[in-house]
Known about the structure:
The protein is mostly beta strands.
Amino acid sequence: MQFFFAKVLAILTGIIMLGSFFPGHESTTTPFYPTIGTLPFSVPNCVQPPSNVNLSKLSNQQLAIYGLPPKPRDATLISTWRFNLLHAKHRSCSGYRPLHPKINIHPFTSQWSTTNYAGNLANSDGYNSAWSYWNVPCVNTPNNAFSSAWVGIGGYPTGNADRLIQAGTDSDMTGGTPYYTLWVENLPDYPATSNFHPTCGDRIWAVVYNDYLGKQWAYEEVEDVTRNVYWTGSQEGSSYIDKSSISAEWIVEGDYQDPDYIPLTKFGSVHFNYALADRNGVSYNAGSLPHDYAVMCTNSFWGVCGWGSTQLAHPGPISSDGNNFTVYWDNSQ
């Protein structure tokens, strides 16, 4: 009976989230998706950053014109913010949306399992932003497989369980070829994927805001620091999440849907570096926050790997300074 309920829960919770793309250039090629298709997407009012201006000298309102993040309120983060602005030389303006939303997050306990993601989730309330660095993981097996690394806020199970703001990268295998991309998403809206595609190993910085410029806007940026390209999204009003019930997440996601599932690409490991979240203008590293530790496995029953389950990925310990941790691949299916 326990195995039956575990399989039912896996079916209900294994929601599809895919993306697959050509590395290292802008492309209009439609990727493989086992969904009902894709729609073209263009960033509205997509203005390129000026090449002859010190972007860190601009006001927050001026930065918003170019889709760039505001100056951090926490003074300890300003040097990192300036570094990322230095590498924001080209704004990607065209992409596509799959006709299926990405996964939602529902943290429950301090250590638990899920069928489609692994990582750490800060489960206390009041977050305004979250960010992290990582490198795009290189993949080559198995074929027609998927994995995604992202940073997000929202998805907490009380009050706003259907709201989640995310920015991340995908590392997929399609037709024997690896594909990598940048994407952002405001659940319940569809994700938006850039037509620029990074190369595996590229250094990534991603940041999400819940109250962008104090205007109740959601904002997401994912930046390929290696190639000086960034991809953004923002939405006014309807995407805002009540801060009284909001979480922060650093996740590697797969898609296990029993009995039909997409294998997890053999991504090796994803090292989240400088994983931080902001509460009321003060930054906290992931290790200093109450957080849930999530393991990905093929069967999940009330937060525990079910009978006969295979562990797919797990997070390692958070570093002693609280800023870093690694998610490790264990199995593809």
